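For consistency, the fold was encoded as tokens, which produced the following:
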Amino acid sequence: MPLGGVPPELCGRARARPRALRPCPRIEGRSVCPRADAGLSSSLVAIGQSTGPGGQSPAPAGGASGGRTANTRVVVDPVPFAPTLRDRVRSFLRKHGRKLWWLHSAYALGLGITVVAFAQKGFEHARWLAISVGAAWLLVVLFFRLFGSGRDQAHVHAAGPKVKLRFFAMTYVLKNLYQGMLFFLLPFYWKSTTFWAPNSWFVVLLGICALLSTLDIVFDRVVFRFRALASVFHGVALFGCLNLVVPALFPDTRTLYSLLVATAITVVGFWTIHVNLATLRDRRWIALFVLSAGAALALVYAGRTAIPPVPMYVSHGAVGPIVLPDGRLGMVVRELHPSVIDKLLAITDVVVPGGKGDRLVHVWRHDGVEVHRATETTSRVDGPEGTVRLRSGLTGRELPKHLVGSWSVDVETQDGQLVGRVGFLVTE
């Protein structure tokens, strides 16, 4: 048998009977040629192992041991690709990764609600915020030193797995730190806020920042994409925390002093995010830093009435005409007629978990105009432990001629910060 396993008689017949072939027909652009198919199958049989009647292969001429085995061609069906567990996980994350981030955001929001419930247990835990504040501060500075701001972060998505892992690990830790701090602050600022007053905006701002810290995609791709936006976010969290940390670490601190200390440290934190320490060797930068700190302190002092005096808050307040022997009001009024007004008394209980660092006053207002102011030296009376009870009143001579309108009794610090408010209405 010649090389290739083709029998000589087949080659002879192929040379002896050549014939012309007609072109094969084409159906729908595809060639249909039965002769080619028949010839191909016969050639494969010839080239492969010859078969006898009944499909049995004839024995070789020289016997089983002395003959040579004919060349055979084995056609094996392709084995289907079986993805590994790692490939399946990657495919799932690639398809549903964004949904998983939103699911994690919902989990973070639930965790924040748990922190709010924990914060209501007591003010003594507020001192631990100092550790979270310090850690978040260092991580923010390091984050922008490593990854830059704006377009500089574009290389992260095209970088290797180690860079991506470092990026997402730092943002994950930062989000958890901010979530813990901001959600812990909310109940304290909520209690100290007098809604529909100038200081109600700050707790809303804290709530927005707390919500942003739970939205992973927004936090990573918007807030911490730009250095300026991240520094504002960090400044709000830092300022809010320090307002609470200072009286927790140093009891009986005046609220205004806590406010100014928090402002000064926040300015320093803002500068460390944007400027290297080596830059401050230039005296011009030092002068600019001093000017910015002075401007921030002056702005906060001028707008101190728009910041709640945490951690103080009014736990109870009411207005009425009669006082019981134990110091409580015998009758609480919300709306009354001017003909029954002979005198009015107001009693408020102010909780001071950070100690008694401020002198408090009662300010009576009629349609927003101040009518009477009673200092703490003349209005403080015995009250429950941990609170400052103030009692003041308006008698016949101090009452204005026209009583109809909206009335309020505000509890303020000596620096004008609003602690709480009790309102009532006089109608015809």
Observations:
- Confidence is low (pLDDT under 50) at residues 10-18, 35-55, 61-67.
- Residues 97-306 form one domain.
